[in-house]
Amino acid sequence: MTEDVGGIAMPKRTCAGCREVAEQETLVRLAQASDGGVVVDCLRKMPGRGAWVHPRPGCVRAAVRGGGLGRAFRSSVKAEPDALVQKLGEEIARVWEEAARRWERGGRVAGPLARRVAALEAHVAEFNRGSAR
Ligand SMILES: [Zn+2]
User: Fold this and answer.
1) 53 in helix, strand or coil?
2) Cα(59) to centroid of ligand 1, in Å?
3) How far is the CA of 123 from the centre of ligand 1 (A)?
4) pLDDT tens, 45-60?
5) Which domains, from first to last, does the chain contain?
6) Each residue of 6-44: b (16+ CB within 10 Å) or e?
7) Which pTM was predicted?
8) Distance between CA atoms of 66 and 63, rounded to whole angstroms?
9) Ligand 1: distance of its center to the CA of 105 in Å?
C-alpha cells in the first residue's frame, strides 16, 4: 500500500489497534518473540511478522484485547496490555534519546533518518499525551 505524496511514495499500514490506515512513519512496529511474547521494534530490525500500532496506549491495549496483534502475527499472543504499553513507552524514549544524543554530537541527520527522528519525536509526544488520559 503506497500513496504518492509530493513525489515520494509513503508506505501505509493499518494500526492493529484502531484499524486506521496511517503512514508507516507514524506507527511503531511490534514483533513477536520466539516465546510468543511481544517486543517493541522501534528500529524495525526484528525478523518475522510485525504488527503496526499508533504509539498510543489506547491503540496498544486495543491491539492486544481486540485480537489485532494475533491476526498480524497469525498466532496467539502472550502479552499483558498494560505491560506492553509500559514497554512501548520505555523503548520509544530510549531510541529517541539515543537519536537526540547523536544529533547533539553533530551527526548528520538527513533524508530518511531525519524523517525517522521526527517521527520518533512525534511518538514521544503522542505517547505522553495518551498516557495523560
Ligand atoms: Zn491506532
Assistant:
1) strand
2) 5
3) 12
4) 888 889 999 999 999 9
5) 2-132 (3.30.1230.10)
6) eeeebebbbbbbbeeebebbbbbbbbbeeeeebebbbee
7) 0.81
8) 5
9) 34
